[in-house]
Amino acid sequence: MKRTLFLVLVLSAFAMLGTSRVLAQVPPAPAAPPTAGAPNAGAPAAGRGGRGGAPALIDLATAKKIVDAAEAFATAQTLKVAISVVDANGDLVYFRRMDGTIAAGVTAAPGKARAAILFGLPTKDVTDAVAAGKPVSTLITPSGLAAGTVTVQQGGIPMFKDGKVVAGIGVGGATAAQDETIAKAGLEAAK
Hints:
Elements: H1 2-17, E1 22-23, H2 60-76, E2 82-87, E3 92-97, H3 103-119, H4 123-131, E4 137-138, H5 142-146, E5 156-161, E6 164-172, H6 176-189
Antiparallel strand pairs: 1-4, 2-3, 2-6, 5-6
């Protein structure tokens, strides 16, 4: 928890200074390649999102489809959450707050989605690496931070297309593990 808080504070400090690059060290070891047809198929092997040049953007219809599926999954589990989809710039594309969602979930959801695009990894992977003392790195651009907070807490999932991060999905309001499961259900709908 202290390491996660420290990482968030460091990222915030660099954002306020207008720094264009923050290195906490190097990315974690590559994950196994996804199976054909799986969500995030075509994601870079190292997990990082290749945000070079003009970022690929997610369209509103796809973002709405993701949020609808995530909300349906949360409803089936009787959970009340906020669900956010941001594009590769970190700009909000679609947001929904279910009735009864706690206030912290409302601010956490877009922050988790932004963290997922900045690291090109599920936010759980980032927090696990930090907790284990493993190095993690990211390229932070002013557009990715100017949009709002970055929340490095489980519940954010990046979405890849052609090896590039095109969106981040963030969920807040339930337990961290439940938030992640709901985000994955939304991502599954985008296939």
